[in-house]
What does this fold into?
Amino acid sequence: MSIPVEPSVEAPRPDEDVAPATGTDDGGAGTSPPRPPGGSIFTIEGRAAPGLYLAGWLGSVMGLGILLVGLLASGGAAPVVLSAIGAAILGIGLVAAAGSQAIERRARGEAGYVGPSPFLVFAASLPLTILLVIVVVGPASVLGFDLRSPAASLVSVLATALVYAGLVRLLVVGPGSLGWREMGFGPLGPGAVRDLALGALLALPVIVVTSALASLLVELVGAAPDSPLPPSGGGLGLLVNLVSAMVVAPVGEELFYRGFATTAWARSIGPRRALVRGAIFFALVHVLTISGATFGETTARAFVAFVARLPVAVALGWVFLERRSIYASIGLHATFNGLLVILAELAAGSSLG
It folds into this structure.
C-alpha cells in the first residue's frame, strides 16, 4: 500500500520575520515558537528590548517631524529652538534604535559582528551634530561670528568628529561589540609612526589619480563641486583650514568609516565586500551637503564629487585592512587633505594675481 508523504516545508532563514503561529498541524501537535521579529515588523512582542525599541521608533518619528518644522520655518528664534529640540529627540530616538538593534542581534546569536549597523549609527550622528553646532555656533552668530569663516568650519568638523567618537564609544565599544584595538588603535609608538608615514607616501599617487579623474569628469558634465572648506584668506585662515583638513577630519572620519564601519562589515560580509561598501558609503556621505543653482547642476556636482572620491576611499579602506592600523589610513587621509588645501590655496592665489 502507499504511504502518504507530507509536503516539505522550507525552513525560514534566520534573518526572515516569522509570523506567530495561529493553530496546530493536522496531527494536533503544537507548532514551534516564532523567532524574534526583525526590523521590518513593528511590534514589541518577542523583542529582547521592547522598551528601547519603542523609544527608538517614537523618538525618531517625533524628532524628525519637529526638526523638519524648525528647518522649514523662518524668522525669529523659534525655528532655531524647534530645530534644536527636534534634533535632540531624533538623535535620542536613533541612538535607542541602534541600541535595540544590537541587543536583538545578540539575543538571536548572530555570527560575526553583533553591534548596531554603521548606517544606523551614522543616521544618529546627523541630528546630534546639528544640535551641537546649533548650541555652539548659534550664540556666537548673534555676537557677529562669521558662519562662513574657517573657524566656523573647524567648529563644524570638530562637532562631527566628537559625535562620531561619542557614538562609537557608547554603542560599539561600551557594549563590547568591538574594541579599540580591533578597530586599529594600537599603541602609540614606532609602529604607529611607520604606519602614518606609509599612509602619507600613498597620498601622492592617489591625489594624481583623483585629480585626473576629477578633471575628466568636470569636462564631461560641465560642473565642478565647491571646496568643502571656505576660502582661507591667507595667514591664520589657512592654518585653521589645515587643522580641520589634516587633524580633526582624518581622525574623526577614519575612526568611524574605517575603524568602526569597515571592521564591522569585514566581520559580517568579508574584507573585500567591506572595502567596497565602505568606499561607496564614504563617498556618498561627502556629497550630502552639495548644492547648486538648479537640480541639474546639483546632480552634476554630486556625481563628480562622488566618483572623484572613490579612488581615495578605496585606498583608505585598502591600507587600513592591509595594515590593520588606523594610523596608516589617518596618514593617507591627512596628507591627501593637506595637499588639496595647499593646491586650492595656490590656485586661488594665482587667479587673484
About this structure: The chain has two domains: 47-177, 182-353. Residues 47-177 form one domain. The longest helix spans residues 236-269. The radius of gyration is 24 Å.
